[in-house]
Amino acid sequence: MTNPEEAIAAPAADAPAEAPKAPKAPKEKKEKPKKEAKAEGEGKKSGGGAAAGGESKGLGLRNSKKDNFGDWYSELVVASELISYYDVSGCYILRPWAYAMWEVVQGWFDQRIKKLGVQNSYFPLFITEDVLNTEKDHVEGFAPEVAWVTKYGNSTMEKPIAIRPTSETVMYPYFSQWIRSHRDLPLRLNQWTNVVRWEFKYPTPFIRSREFLWQEGHTAFATQEEAEREVLDILELYRGVYEDLLAVPVTKGKKSKKEQFAGAFYTTTVEAYIPETGRGIQGATSHCLGQNFSKMFNITYEDDDRQKQHVWQNSWGLTTRSLGVMIMTHADDKGLVLPPRVAPKQVVLIPIPKASTAPEAVQAMLDKVDELTKALEDKGVRVVTDTRSNYTPGWKYNHWELKGLPLRVELGPKDMDNAAVMTCRRDTGAKEVVPWADVATRIPELLETIQADMFAAAKSRTANCTETCHSWEEFMAALGNKHMALTPWADEEEIEEEVKKKSTTPDAMGAKTLCLPFEAPPLPEGTKCFYSGKPAKNWALWGRSY
Amino acid sequence: MTNPEEAIAAPAADAPAEAPKAPKAPKEKKEKPKKEAKAEGEGKKSGGGAAAGGESKGLGLRNSKKDNFGDWYSELVVASELISYYDVSGCYILRPWAYAMWEVVQGWFDQRIKKLGVQNSYFPLFITEDVLNTEKDHVEGFAPEVAWVTKYGNSTMEKPIAIRPTSETVMYPYFSQWIRSHRDLPLRLNQWTNVVRWEFKYPTPFIRSREFLWQEGHTAFATQEEAEREVLDILELYRGVYEDLLAVPVTKGKKSKKEQFAGAFYTTTVEAYIPETGRGIQGATSHCLGQNFSKMFNITYEDDDRQKQHVWQNSWGLTTRSLGVMIMTHADDKGLVLPPRVAPKQVVLIPIPKASTAPEAVQAMLDKVDELTKALEDKGVRVVTDTRSNYTPGWKYNHWELKGLPLRVELGPKDMDNAAVMTCRRDTGAKEVVPWADVATRIPELLETIQADMFAAAKSRTANCTETCHSWEEFMAALGNKHMALTPWADEEEIEEEVKKKSTTPDAMGAKTLCLPFEAPPLPEGTKCFYSGKPAKNWALWGRSY
Q1: pLDDT (0 to 100) of residue A202
Q2: Is residue A415's pLDDT more than 80?
Q3: With 90 as the cut, is the pLDDT of residue A167 above it?
Q4: Is there a contact between A124 and B93 if contact means CB atoms under 8 Å apart?
Q5: What are the residue boundaries of the Aminoacyl-transfer RNA synthetases class-II family profile domain, all occurrences included (chains A, B) (predicted)?
Q6: Per CATH, the architecture of A466-543 is what?
Q7: Pairing of strands B92-94, A538-545
Q8: Which residues of chain B does A150 touch, with a Cβ-Cβ cutoff of 8 Å?
């Protein structure tokens, strides 16, 4: 549906005078930051909560996922009412359709970390300069991106105050006060907050923004073993968010030294991959901080022998980026394709009376819609009904496809005769007749099938995009194919830097290690590093990346 | 319990070597901002998540609610582990015990506004100077308190960027883009965020801080009538948060012109009152913005006659202050007293073996604790068990009293013989024997009784603190009694300013109107303003205030 002129049904004949207007370009000054905004498709809309208006333009996307991915994505997130561009560059508005999905992610993850014994809390947005500077590697990693408050009203602050880019240095001075005995351990805190990183990489809605929402967990343990167990427990939850909730396949692994979190002992990660751009993307990271921060912040406990010991710490974070990865993975040229488990609404019920349908028959149809809605809601299905009389069925189909609803349920005169509904899957377009009597059981099943099929399809796409490479030629060929490269590697930072430089082309950024995957082929003795020819220490997954 | 030396039980004989240490004073530099920190009582603690340590000091409060309220409050919020003072003045850490209550408030309110049709969203933290300046009255109200970001890394920003003190000006430029037709209305958004107001009034944990958490609702309607209906719907929910959830009585009313929100058409409020300090406190406000902002931000819709109309807008907010008001209302010299509905844990179950109890009998007791816990949890009761062997029952009683748990349930050898438990209410100290067979029904009942009794007691305390005054002498006498004054009033801003000046004493701030209460006595024609002698226009509730 790259030609919106053809794809969009005109409003029905009974459309009121103020029928949907064509979208207008956003006001340049207010809406469109100069650098990153592209082909937004944002405009005025009509109809309670409807997307861009009807007439002969406005629904459907002008860009295609295959041909111009970046423009397609920018247009999509605005047209589907997830995002509005904001007049502070690199900041975005999360509109209700996006925020509702973030609430689903929050609910899923929050419940599970609480079961693990993690408690929520809230630490301030601000950090003093002295505290921020406590851990050297850490602050060096973040310093260039830190935003500073220097004024209030018309006055100048005595000392500038940083806005948190992450909260290690906010929290750990207090960890050192709260922890004394081994019985104060483990201390496991989490917070759901905004953070600010004044980055200058190309900002992209969800994927990279200067302010973003996340959860950050910060925990302290008596032993390395306990800390390391939690690192993997959390990583498994992050896998769950991506694979089980968002239907996005990820690779679990460890980051190379060069790519790990500033100040960490080591970083584990779930890495996703966008086939269309051939770029990997870091999904979420779970860091073992070791005793690096506890030594700097003097966080100690007395062990059974009354000896002071530094605690072992972790930190771990998942951001609104996860929604961006999900969108990029599943959406198509008609709009969003939302996995049922994260979709704010899973089913749209559309009655389709004909112009010739008698009023009583229309009423019977509407009553049946209500009845089916209730039956589905009783089963926990999130349903929306579209009974608006001033839009054609075709316009509605396009609208709800743009919004990504997993399943459309139509109820027309023929369906009324047959005591059934027609269902249509967003992911495959497959249609299925479901008798009324089966709606409350079959539709939840269909939603689970859609969820599973979406994940399987994404997994198969990604699996076809990894090439095992033993030489530089194979490596560059894989990148050229927009694939990831799995290579034996000598695990040396200099190699990673050289590879990045040498793989940079006029058209594409250099490749880096995405992770050292936990699941990898055997590495027989004598296997050589694909780049240096030295003995390989491990397998590394490489790719261009976000 | 003002003398902690006497009040605290020594640790049991079997306390391990690293028995609770005496609290240490917080590190001045890190923990205690010079101006506002007082008698914090914060120190090192021992025992998994326990409060300040045992020995001969540390539990119980040094200050009393009656004698030195301010010190008592500051000590209480730290000792009960709600708050830690932070090294940026006016910012506080919300520890898990506090944050869990905020989550209860969020859950209660969020569910209800969603039922009303409000949707959650997230708008950026930052505002450009131009946008902030759009509504003149509004910006004048906030300008002195706005914090400005002027730097990132080592660079200076082209233009300073404000941190939101509230989000009217963040959101409304987008309202003007999203709203076109009357079918785009109502638009009802909410967000749960942090905001920053760099105030110089005395900061107090929860009550007044430079960063705080809140929800802010922002809505737009076609008609004044719909907008005004929502103002009151939301105000009723705010009353519910205070009265039904936090057991804090409030007075609903309208703010005077002088006290209303900067830029509002009018402001409605729920006002609470702290008898010990004789000060009123604004609980939450629901503003009708009228068309003030829609005219400035050009937010219009086309009506049925294709005429452009400015929308009617509301904004409304509830903050973490609500928890502070709840604490001040109910807590006593032993610590917090939490209303069951908001308490993170409602019941503590404590087995009390004697030194002479045989091991099998101890095990039977522990098994019974598990069984009762499960029975209560199945009824939705939030239970904690305290089976630690290195603390005495007395120490545990004091600890859980400090934390404010509504109901203590003891299980000793005698109770085992009688197949019953002994319950003890935190609010009244009343004890009641409950047979095991009745635990799962009687304890939820008791919790509801505690909730109701706490509200009734607070309501009666407040009701005794309002004096109807018809003259200046009566008015000053009421203030002298630490009471609020309900007066007939000519409703003139100059009177309010004069009253504030004239009622200021060397020891006490001046009084202002808290609200014009919705429920007030009749105002017969000819009634005169208590201050000016002019014809009274309405009843006003006055008081010193937070």
Answers
A1: 86
A2: yes
A3: yes
A4: yes
A5: 99-339
A6: 2-Layer Sandwich (3.30)
A7: unpaired
A8: 148-151
Q: Which of A174, A319, A391 to mutate to test the interface with B (most CBs of B within 10 A)?
A: A174
What the block records as the tokens of B268 is 């409605």
Q: What is the mean pLDDT of chain A?
A: 90
Q: Residue A37: what residue type? A: A
Of residues B23 and B497, the one with the higher pLDDT is B497
| Average pLDDT along chain B | 90
Residue ranges of the domains in chain B? 69-330, 347-451, 466-543
User: Which amino acid appears at position B269 of this protein?
Assistant: T
Q: Is residue A138 predicted with pLDDT exceeding 90?
A: no
Map tokens 């980026």 to a residue. A321
Cβ(A57)–Cβ(A3) below 8 Å: no
Hey, which CATH number is domain B347-451, 3.40.50.800, 1.10.1200.10, 3.40.50.300, 1.25.40.530?
3.40.50.800
Structural contact between residues B428 and B406, judged by C-beta atoms closer than 8 angstroms: no
Contact A173 B87 (CB under 8 A): yes
Distance (Å, rounded) from C-alpha B170 to C-alpha A30? 11
CA angle A421, A426, A431 (to 5 degrees): 40
- Give mean pLDDT, residues B169-178: 97
Please name which of A124, A27, A131 lies closest in space to residue B147, comparing C-alpha atoms.
A124
User: Exposure pattern of A165-194 as b/e (b: 16+ CB <10 Å)?
Assistant: bbbbbbbbbbbbbbbbbbbbbbbbbbbbbb
Whether A100 and B122 lie within 8 Å, measured CB to CB: no
Flag if A18 and B151 touch (Cβ within 8 Å).
no
Closest Cα in chain A, distance from residue B134 (Å): 13
B177 with A84: Cβ contact below 8 A = yes
Query: To probe the interface with B, which of A126, A128, A175 has the most B CB atoms within 10 Å?
Result: A126
Would the pLDDT of B218 be above 80? yes
Counting beta carbons within 10 angstroms of the beta carbon of residue A38, is it exposed (0 to 12), middle (13 to 18) or buried (19 or more)?
Answer: middle
ipTM: 0.90
Residue A303 neighbours by CB under 8 Å, 6+ apart:
A182, A222, A309
What does the block give as tokens for A168?
């290690």
* Confidence category of residue B33, pLDDT binned at 50, 70, 90: very low
Q: Which CATH class is domain A69-330?
A: alpha beta
